[in-house]
Amino acid sequence: MLSQLRNIVEHVSQAGNASDALSVLVTETRQAMNADCCSVYLTDTEHGRYRLCASDGLADSSIGKVSMGFDEGIVGLVGQREEPINLADAPSHPSFKYFPETAEETFKALLGTPITHRGDVLGVLVVQQILPRSFDQGEESFLVTLATHLAGVLAHSEVKDKLQSAQLQSWQEPIEAVSASSGIAIAKAWLNRPRHSLNSVKIAKSKDRDKELAKFEQALERTREELSGLSIRLNEQLPKDVAAIFELYKHMLADASLAGDIRSKLSQGYRCDSAIRLVVEHYVSQFEAMSDSYLRERALDVRDLGQRLLQALYQGKKGMSLPDKAIILVAEEVTASMFAELPRELIAGVVSQRGAANSHAAILARAMGIPALLGFSLDVLQLDNLQLIVDGYTGKLFVEPDALLQQEYAELLVQQNEIDSLMATELEQPSVSLNGIEIELLINAGLNSEGDKAAKLGSGGVGLYRTEVPFLLRDRFPSEQEQYRVYRDILQAYDGKNVCMRTLDVGGDKQLPYFPIVEENPALGWRGIRLTLDHPEIFLLQVRAMFRAAIEQGNMSLLLPMVSSLHEVDVSLRLIDQAWYELREELNRPDLPRPKIGAMLEVPSTLFLLPELAKRVDFWSVGSNDLTQYMLAVDRNNPRVAGLFDTLHPAVLRALAQVVEQGHQHNVPVCVR
Predict the structure, then answer these.
(1) Are 258 and 333 contained in the same domain?
(2) pTM exceeds cut of 0.90
(3) Quick one: average pLDDT of 389-407?
(4) Distance (Å, rounded) from C-alpha 653 to C-alpha 656?
């Protein structure tokens, strides 16, 4: 039955529209279970009813017309209990409700199971037979398994429009998403769709290979010029380590990558547009098949490049028309180049149907301070030119909000701007609570622009500088000199204030494109200090670059990420000492004081090693996100369980209290990020 189950799910996923998908579902399920009837009832949330939307066995005239309340019939009972119901003689059950228009009087046996997604009942799947009998355990297990698989498919496809048609038309409820960048935006949706789609290109060959090659070379040159222009535009708004995203794009267009493979297809006689589609789709499929999230996200970059090549081939340098006022950028997949095409002042917010927190679009949104939401089950094509509210704090999107809600968010936006203005002045004042307790206010940073902005606001320094960002935005490990320049710039931006630099923390959800790590459970795998200690050449090079910058500025401390044992701290300190002694000897400055060394407390095991840890390091930094994640076993980037991520959970608060208490006892400074 497993192959049948896979086939049903695959065929439903591939259906062209909602009606076809539901028709495929009931027909193939009835056949697989050798039943006399299969029907699906979908949840009409606004009217509180289950509506018959497809059936293979009931009267066709009843489809779309028959419905029952959430507390009516056996279908309603299945929804209430949220578990399967197996009846040998359904008409004799007290909850049975008969609808003459369905012509179901001949059916006796009934098996129904809820279709549930993230705790919500999307509908009920029912099979019936004429003969009275109980469906066996294997049949019941099959239907439950099928409904479980279908829940995700239905919730993330056009079928969900039918599941919640009344709700979507009135847009009464906010749409949940993953926040990639915090903030609030209120504006009209501006839909960005490619003018030419790779999927629409028909595979064909041409007799004139030289002509097709010339067309490609022309399109390639236009695309490279376009990328250079986009890179220059971003360079004006962002530091070089962020704008370097387009260097990766150019690298992918090199002769050894996309361009070379496209020329190979052209030499086989393919038409230029066909060659582009074949090569790009091959690269995309390779990236999408990779196990780590960062590399999978590069499939979007390749597809974006393919679209740009196609656009250059068909339209040359014809530019896009820009909106005349600030908009919320909406796309099925927002790309880095979409950001660069629009002036910053025109992008109030971003909404992307697909995407992840480590995509280039997400990185740019955070760097540019643009609220962004990713990962919707809703088809964003419906949003074009509609009024939107993007709440990047709660991960909610409001569509066509009423006047009262718009007014509330407009006031919040005013308050947010007032707070920003207030911070610009108040942050220069001493940080003292109302009861007289002094609090040191620091920032987390990973981009030079963040550091420059915060320095102007007058913060006390950088509590955490994420050194992995310069690594993530390159196509190779940066050299010691390249790292030194980055670290020197951030230390200079905070002249006279401490900057705590964390050593390379990659792995898990932060994958380097040129150093892929394939693991079944990356969050518990080869990441952070574990990785760099296994590659001391990487660790030593980075520490040397940090120390060189620190010698010049004198305002750096060093932080070790993902510490889980004392052995890791001991090995790290040995390597740090090695780098420090080497550098002092090279510079002939034996009297230089070594920067302070700290350990991150983000793995629960460190909470039981604090007395010993206090003897080895100068300070502790609590990684609150990871500590919460590991203590509660919740991935905050997984929308299915993100609601369980609670930084105020009693266990988390008690852990923080223990860290502070131990810090006081052993005279070790503690900060929380």
Answers:
(1) yes
(2) no
(3) 88
(4) 5
